[in-house]
Amino acid sequence: MSKKTTIYDIAAKLNITAATVSRALNGNSKISESTRKLVNETAKEMNYEQNKLALALKSGKSFNIGVIVPRIDSNFFASVIRGIEEELHPHGYHVIICQTHDQDTVEIENINSLLNAQVDGILMSISNSKLETDEHFQKLLKKGVPLIFFDRRKEISGVSSVTIDDFKGAYTATQHLIDQGCKRIAHLSNNREIQIFKNRYLGYKQAIIDNGLEFDEAIVIETMSKVLEGRKTTKQLLAMEKPPDAIFSSSDFTALGAIEEIKAHGLKIPEDISVVGFSNEPFTRFMELSITSVDQSPIEMGRITAQVFLEEAKNSKKIKSEKQVILSPELIIRDSSLKSTIVSEK
Amino acid sequence: MSKKTTIYDIAAKLNITAATVSRALNGNSKISESTRKLVNETAKEMNYEQNKLALALKSGKSFNIGVIVPRIDSNFFASVIRGIEEELHPHGYHVIICQTHDQDTVEIENINSLLNAQVDGILMSISNSKLETDEHFQKLLKKGVPLIFFDRRKEISGVSSVTIDDFKGAYTATQHLIDQGCKRIAHLSNNREIQIFKNRYLGYKQAIIDNGLEFDEAIVIETMSKVLEGRKTTKQLLAMEKPPDAIFSSSDFTALGAIEEIKAHGLKIPEDISVVGFSNEPFTRFMELSITSVDQSPIEMGRITAQVFLEEAKNSKKIKSEKQVILSPELIIRDSSLKSTIVSEK
């Protein structure tokens, strides 16, 4: 790599002090017009560009925004990012993205990398970890770098968030399964220290109770949002003495795994077992057997997250404001759970 | 936002010069051990962290690597990035990602953003634009920031690349359609100023010619890699006096659009029209009618791209080396083109 030009190189070339170079580049009025011109021309000749960064450091603005997501190969997160970009781009901001792969160590590294990259703010969906400490988030707050959570959030004072009403989404999905005649509905849950998964669990549970069905903790299984994990967990459920007649999954990926496993057992969907996922990933629509899922309007979520950031960035005062935006989810009913005709035939 | 602590703040607090603070933080031997200790402790107390960046500027290393892709919501690009991360992480590098949405202006902005973020290198797949200028790439080279292309490359002296043998992938796909009895094979192409699309076109053309079929430029249509574009283009093809009996698409997304459009016309796949895509996106496997496609081993592509970067980063000398790695593609035959039984019945 060739060495970068510094203000010292320019100073040496012009036989003036580095301080003069710095002042000239920053447009300090103590510097004569002729010197300023000479310094600027020399800087250009020598391919000097650090001053942009130096200015950014000074003004506290790089116009780069960091976005951290568990994974980019999920349509949900990719769409949120798209919404963020669409909203921020007209304001001159650029989005740089990191993924955590749901590992807390990587999440911490990502935050440090983005801080080193001088981002003006971090918009993130936290990783699925059981990390107790908030230290890495507190570090951001201490440095005055705006932090905004979307979808997966942690309750941290001073941090705004944009989420959907996961309780309602799960309640509606479970109610739909009950309306279809299902009586023993299993739940593929996820790490419930993350609020979205906790709320999906609570919404599911409440719908079961409100409809006078038996709530059985044995058919609530915590798993990871992966196809293979969905298969494994469903295998467990099918091996039970009283297997479920429906599965409500907190993730489309585990729902897909559940469907693969149910088919492998020669059972029919939705007749023998109905399946509902969460997130409305595009594959739920393309599948041979399309999957019922809960839509989270991700592009809107991204846009609103960006708007919350823009507001906070404007408030450069010492005012600490915290905003919680909660969007309403929508159940998209498809083949994997729609057996109304069968029910009405009974 | 709270103001960042600078070396001037530390200097003021300790009543020493900023230069001394800077030297102490950088471990200059002219500074006494006691001063160094005092400065470091004060810097820590005052939450000073700029020195990390300053050191990064000095050493030319931030351990951040920028990856630029046209879109993150493509399994192909997400998998390449995964391969890059897996390979670079053990070396202490962090990956930050930008997407261009195939817009050249955004591509240029992304490069500038990543330069401002002080990345140690940029690994990228260029956007689908007809931009004539190489200026933004030359800027990187001039600054000595390693640039490596993967998949979508441009021929630029001094820039290494990792691609697959697109000619071979397209040739094999077209030969397969011919073997299935197809005689009038259309090609959904893309911007052929991008080498991968040019090579896919050339491979397709060569297979047509080698098999003694008529090559008809009228059924080669340039389109964008989007489902809707695939539908539109296929509509055009189906309206022709002599419509094709097969479509070889340079993208799985346009292939998906083609399938939707063919179905909407009440035609059968593969009996009436066979379809082959390119990239082996996961949805090609999940579809009701699974799609034949060309696999590009993206994780391996990412890993090798990262390895090429690591080699170049080691060569901090003035040696300019250029490496071109070409991986071999594999045709995955599925429902959308497999009609062997029908052919043999004839």
Q: Could you explain the architecture of this structure?
A:
- Two copies of one chain form a homodimer.
- With 346 residues, the first copy, chain A, is an alpha/beta fold.
- Chain A folds into three domains: 7-50, lambda repressor-like DNA-binding domains (434 Repressor (Amino-terminal Domain)); 61-164 and 297-329, 3-Layer(aba) Sandwich (Rossmann fold); 166-296 and 331-345, Rossmann fold, CATH 3.40.50.2300.
- In chain A, 45% of the residues lie in helices and 14% in strands.
- Chain A has helices at 7-14, 18-25, 33-45, 50-59, 75-88, 104-116, 135-142, 166-179, 195-210, 227-238, 252-264, 283-286, 298-314, 340-345, and strands at 64-69, 94-99, 121-124, 147-150, 160-164, 185-189, 220-222, 246-249, 274-276, 293-295, 324-327, 330-332.
- A six-stranded parallel sheet of chain A has the order 2-1-3-4-5-11. In chain A, strands 7-6-8-9 form a four-stranded parallel sheet, with helices on both faces.
- In chain A, helix 9 (195-210) links the parallel strand 6 (185-189) and strand 7.
- In chain A, helix 2 (18-25) crosses helix 3, helix 5 crosses helix 13 and helix 8 runs parallel beside helix 9.
- The longest helix of chain A has 17 residues, at 298-314.
- Chain A is elongated and about 85 Å long.
- Residues 342-346 of chain A have low confidence and may be disordered.
- Chains A and B meet through helix 4, helix 5, strand 2 and helix 6 of A and helix 4, helix 5, strand 2 and helix 6 of B.
- Chains A, B: Pfam families: LacI (PF00356), Peripla_BP_1 (PF00532).
- Chains A, B: This is LacI family DNA-binding transcriptional regulator.
- Chains A, B: Keywords: DNA-binding, Transcription, Transcription regulation.
